[in-house]
Amino acid sequence: MEAHLIEWLNLLGRWLHMIVGIAWIGASFYFVWLDNHLESPKKDGDNDKGVGGELWSVHGGGFYHAQKYKVAPSVMPANLHWFKWEAYTTWITGMFMLALIYWYGAEFYLIDSSVADLSKTFAIVLSIAVIVQGWITYDVLCRSKFGENEKVLGAIIFVLLCFTSWGLCELFSGRGAYIHFGAILGTIMVGNVFFVIMPGQRAMVEAASKGEPVDPIHGMRAKQRSIHNTFFTLPVLFVMISNHYAMTFGHEWNWVVLVGITLAGGLIRIYFVQRHFAARENAERGFVSGEEKTASLIPLAIAFAILLILSFAITSPPKPVAVSKSDVNGTVALSTEALLDQAMPIIQQRCTVCHSASPTMAGFSSAPSGFLMDTAEQVTTHAIKIHQQSVVTKVMPIANMTKMTAEERDVINAWFLSQAR
């Protein structure tokens, strides 16, 4: 009953996290796009009112006219819409999922004794500490002198992210390290909203409501943090789906893979932001056809080059394992069927405690991802995934709870490779 309840909480929590995450990221992307496409107001009266930019758009059968004020309107509108709950609920549901999966199930998903032999309590405390410390370090940097130079600040943040990726992969399982990297970035993003953007906006609204001059520093700080958030978005989205791709978090150099994909995600966002600026400049200056300014393809090319290199680096096939008589009671010339006969007892002992129609492992009410390994036919059907997870990345059995040995992995490897003979 407990395992069934956990699965339902997992389902509902993940679903809600996805819904509110789409709302937050969608709003973030839209306002970045909007801000970078604003044109100078066409009416002289708008300049006098303090309008700094405007944009006409059409969507869903309607025309929209958006205007952005340089600081604030002279009279505050009766209805002012705020964008904050999307960020807060995304973080709350994300932390709920972190607690449900990686704290409640720390022995399965967070701790890997081959990486660091941590107790469950200490692993959870460490988990909380690295997330909190990530936000504090970032916020202090942004408020320091380094925060006045975006290039220097960006370089320092990237170096710290590299160190964080390495450190997490030295503490937690690959899967746990990746999700905590994303949790740190997500906490920074929502921290920017809660501690910087929203207080600044409240101060601006309060000053405008009283007819007092609005300090532009609030807008400058909010824009800086908002830009950071947009560059963190794609890496966070990758982390959210990374648990489906053991070839990344299960690789020997998993921290380098994480850094590479993070860098690629940031470069892709840089390209799209540059496209926004180019489009605005074209509209402002009225370029004729053939003279339009275009965004540099260099960031996009570098991003795809990084992903291409990673794709080759992490998918190299394992070296064939010589199988001796003492290994599997046979010889190298054993047929695939004979090797499967040797592999099946291992799979049944080490894998079907979870991957079965009736799992016996505590905490599992159904087979993860629906993969069943009760019969030889089912095992053959999932041969590629079994080999990838248990031999190439070695992320299965999860946290090696069932103590699969190196020799047993060699047997599975020999069976898999024999299919190509």
Provide a descriptive summary of the structure in words.
The chain is mainly alpha-helical and 421 residues long. The protein is elongated, with a radius of gyration of 26 Å. Helix 1 (2-35) runs antiparallel to helix 3 (85-103), helix 7 (174-209) packs antiparallel against helix 8 and helix 8 packs across helix 10 (254-285). Helix content is 64%, strand content 4%. The longest helix has 36 residues, at 174-209. It has two domains: 82-313, no CATH class; 325-418, no CATH class. A hairpin with a 2-residue loop joins strand 1 and strand 2 (62-69).
In short:
The chain is 64% helix and 4% strand.
List its salient traits:
4% strand; 64% helix; 421 residues; mainly alpha; membrane; two-stranded antiparallel ribbon
Helix coverage percent:
55-70%
Number of helical segments with 4 or more residues: 16
Largest sheet: 2 strands, antiparallel
Number of strands: 2
Report the mean per-residue pLDDT as an integer: 89
Q: Note the overall shape.
A: elongated
Strand order of the largest sheet: 1-2
Number of domains: 2
Order of helices and strands: HHEEHHHHHHHHHHHHHH
How large, in whole angstroms, is the Cα Rg? 26 Å
Ranges with pLDDT <50 over ≥5 residues?
Answer: 322-332
Return the structural class.
mainly alpha
First-last Cα distance? 46 Å
Beta fraction of the residues? under 5%
